[in-house]
Each structure stands twice: as C-alpha cells, then as structure tokens.
Amino acid sequence: MIRVLVVATAAVSRAGLSGALSLDPTLKVVGTAADLDTLGEEVDRWQPDIILLDLGDSPQTSVWDELNRLQAARSPEHIPIALYDWEGDFQAAIQAGVRGILPDTSTELELGAAIAAIARGWLVLPPSAIELFELREKVTTEPVAILTPREIEVLVQIGLGLGNKAIAQNLHISDHTVKFHISSIFQKLNVSTRTEAVTAGIRMGLVLL
C-alpha cells in the first residue's frame, strides 16, 4: 500500500484529490494539509511514501525553498513529490524533488496510475515539460523512463497479458490509440517486444531516482 499525503490550499481540491486516489486499492491517503508551513511536521506525523501537491496561487520561490528544506532534512532519503495542475519552471521543480507533474485533465485512473508510478521511482511529466529541456542530461546520469500517465496505464495492461483490443476496451480508447501508445513506450524504453517493455518497466520502476 502506497501512503499519500495530499497538500492543497483549497478544501475542494483536497477533497477531490483524496477522493480520486481512494478509488485505487493500492493507494491510501494517510493525511491532508492546507499549506506548506507545517509540511515537515505533517510528513513526520504521517510518514507518506509520496506527497501530492496542488500549489494553487502559492509563490513558486517560497514553494521551492520549503521543498528544498524538507528534502535536505531527510537526505538522502528524499520523498517523491507530484504536482497537480501546475505549469512553470520545470527544472526548479525537479531540483526540489518533484518527480511528477499531472495535468488537471487527468482521469481518476490516470491520476492513480501516475501516483503509484512516481512513488515507485518513475518520472512522469507532460510533453510540454519534456520539450523544454533535455531531461536525461539535467536530472540524472542513470536511465530514466519518461512515460505519460496514459502510457503507464497501457504498460500496466500489457503486464496483465492483455491484447490491444482488451486494452482499448478497458481504457475506453481506440485500437489505433493503443498502438500509438505502445509504439511510444517501446521507443522510450528502448525495447522491441511487450515482454521487454514490461521487464524494463519493472526494473526501472523499482529504482528510485
């Protein structure tokens, strides 16, 4: 069970995110917080595996300062952080321990899959973040799998041994879209078969960045 701490300034956002994550049986929302002022105390109290953070209108500079202090206090065991509904300085976010940036268009399934993947060491970013800088060179010298939330869902379905038609039905997308996602997964993981993709996903997903 992956323990999640949800932090959001708006009560409706805290309730919505908590409710969406509660639909995934592998996740457990252990606590919520309304701001970053007591984040360190809340982390000590709840011992989460990952923090889901909705910044709202918070000044980014103060957010990065707070997150850097949090990570420094727990070095080298950094806590992975996911940002929800956010656009800004991706490099600063990564340096502050952010390992996922999730758009507000994410479905409940995509949100749960992304949080689970980030908690296990995956890096989940939107295409706009990937296009802004060469992530492999700036973040780490180790191999990194950069998959979208939907690609993670498709990879999970492949791991269950499902064919394209079944995956399309389960995710409510077309066969053509499934093929497109699989092709993208193969390219990003540098593999050529489904078995290799699942093996690479498991191997890379178990290694924290």
SS-based structural class? alpha/beta
Low-confidence spans: 133-145, 205-209
Radius of gyration based on Cα positions = 17 Å
Helix content: 40-55%
Largest sheet composition: 5 strands, parallel
Rounded mean pLDDT is 81
Strand order of the largest sheet: 2-1-3-4-5
Overall spatial form: globular
Task: Supply the number of helical segments.
Answer: 11
Quote the CATH topology of the largest domain.
Rossmann fold
User: In CATH, what is the class of the largest domain?
Assistant: Alpha Beta
Tally of distinct domains: 2
What's the SSE pattern? EHEHEHEHEHHHHHHH
- How far from one another are the termini? 20 Å
Strand content: 5-15%
CATH superfamily of the largest domain: Response regulator
The CATH architecture category of the largest domain equals: 3-Layer(aba) Sandwich
Quick gist of this model?
With 209 residues, this protein is of the alpha/beta class. The protein has two domains: 2-139, Rossmann fold; 147-209, Winged helix-like DNA-binding domain superfamily/Winged helix DNA-binding domain (Arc Repressor Mutant, subunit A). 52% of the residues lie in helices and 13% in strands.
